[in-house]
Amino acid sequence: MAGDAALIGGIGYLAHENIMQATRGEIRQARKDSHDAYKAFQRQGYQRDPNDPCQELRNKIDFHKKMIAFRAAHDAAFPNPGWPDGKRHADVNNSDAENIKRWEKELEECEKSCKK
User: Fold this and answer.
1) How large is the average pLDDT for residues 89-99?
2) Separation of CA 96 from chain center
3) Measured in Å, how far apart are the chain's first and last C-alpha atoms?
4) What would the pLDDT profile of 20-63 be if each residue is shown by its tens digit?
5) Which helix (H) or strand (E) holds 68?
6) CB under 8 Å to 30, separation ≥6 — which residues?
7) Which pLDDT does position 2 carry in this prediction?
8) Which residues of 65-77 are buried (b: 16+ CB within 10 A; e: fewer)?
9) Measured between alpha carbons, how far is 69 from 64 in angstroms, rounded to an integer?
């Protein structure tokens, strides 16, 4: 998990640091690679656990936090002029953040009911 965060941050950092020295083709390729990396992670989804609903919620929360980090790193490295502040994924990140808050409350209730 910590390795995922380092990978996510590293992708954004490397893309940002090298963007000024890259050709247009290299920038397009770096943007595509960044996009493909977070889409591949997104397709994996989170691990369902029908035997432990609390663990499934933890997995869901962790997955969506990582997705926010992936999209934020991508937007920072490759701002889109067609979106406010260049943040193409701001709306979905905000929506995911709201869902995470709701899921964290659900997790608290789930953990309380498991302790009974």
Assistant:
1) 93
2) 9
3) 30
4) 566 888 888 888 998 899 899 999 999 999 899 999 999 999 99
5) helix 53-77
6) 15, 18, 19, 22, 77, 78
7) 46
8) bbbbbbbbbbbeb
9) 9
